[in-house]
Write a structure and sequence with these properties.
Blueprint lengths: L7 H13 L20 H4 L3 H16 L12 H9 L3 E3 L4 H6 L8 H27 L5 H26 L10 H4 L7 H19 L13 H14 L3 H12 L20 E5 L9 H6 L10 E3 L1 H4 L7 H5 L1 E3 L6 E3 L19 E5 H15 L4 H11 L10 H15 L6 H8 L3 H8 L14 H6 L8
Antiparallel strand pairs: 1-3, 2-6, 4-5
Helix pairs in contact: 1-3, 1-6, 3-6, 3-7, 4-18, 6-7, 7-9, 9-10, 10-11, 10-15, 11-15, 15-16, 15-17, 16-17
Amino acid sequence: MPYLYINIRSAVAAVTVAAALITSSCKKFIEIPPNPTTLAPSQIFADSANATAAITGIYISMIGTSSPALSIGNDGMGMWTGMAADEFDATGAGFAKEFVNNNISITNTFNGSGLWANAYKFIYQSNAVMEGVAASSGISAAMKNRLIGEAEFLRAYFHFALINVYSGVPLCIVSDYKVTSKLPRADTGAVYRQIVADLEDAYQRLQHDPLTLTKVRVNRYAVKALLARVYLYRKQWTLAEAAATEVIGGNYGLVTNLDSAFLVNNREAIWQVPSTAPGWETVVANNIIPQYGGNVPTSIVAPHLLNAFETGDKRRTQWIATTSTGLYTYPYKFKLVNNSAVTVSNPKEAHTPLRLGEMYLIRAEARLKQGIAGAAEDVNRIRNRAGLGNTTAASDDDIMKAIMQERRVELFGEWGHRFFDLKRTGTIDAVLGAEKTTWRSAAALFPIPYNETQLNPNLTPNP
């Protein structure tokens, strides 16, 4: 169902039902009443226990339950934009191959449901939480700040993803479907202003939050990390550097072993979204890695990415695997699949939308653009962790190339970084035009789903 026609009661009930799954996996999450689907919105937000269940339910909805499919909430975006760029190929035909061939149909399910509809579902739920919590008289001021701050972050996070996939998109900041069903595409500047406003307000609300910092629920460092990314994309170099520096100065550190970078609660992780479905630690691994004796992964690493690694780069050997037949190489950042020994109370890997490695590369680029020292040193931290020597780059142009090279091999397959980097630096046509015979400039924007443009006359399509 298109996001425009979800009513508030069903949305709130959905996040509350999903929140019930958390109680068996994390003691910090609060139990919800036994019959959540019978609660009206006023009851959902009557007290902090129910309101907390509503916000944590969004996190669980991001992953999905019981054999979840790839979506924008569990890094399907990283896979599909990686195919649209030059990171991955699909071994099968169908909707996935449309991304590889840069000819995405307006009825593509991965694009329409996995990206667009899911993003707006999470935005809608975030709006419902903000409105319900703000109107509640049974929640303390401190708890209101915590819950509204989390919801603002999530709303900003998904608007940011949408605008970088589709360009101007409907700016959805209320839960009233009578309003959202007719929203036109907003100017990109307006969407970015709302994203920054949401994040800056969220940071103020969470700056002195008494809740123990976790990797699962968004905290002030996660907010600042996303702000660093947004400022970088907006070319606000001073702000990007300051935000990244604040996160780097937090209680984080680069893990020594690359295989630990995506483990639950590792020191490098800033924000993680672990699965609550037994055996489905990450949706990415379960959708890619060959299982049950098979030797054909669904997604393979494109030659352009394979050739980008330097000799001796541990990321090539530890984050990419080869099938036993030797015919296919595939992404292997996540390694655990359908493991019956894994229970919902003991996940071992987690989707990681924000991690420290990106912060060093953001700060390196921001420092370089400001003409101040330290860019090469930040690049070297990432290179050295991967088993490589210091960069030999000396000129500004060469250091910039070194930064983009490290972003390419460090962040591949994660949350759309490569595709977005090519777009934000204005190099996408030159790079992909030289690499792919299927590339055309219009493919830099994914199509607005057909059913959305049919239901909303104010929603104009992309080229």
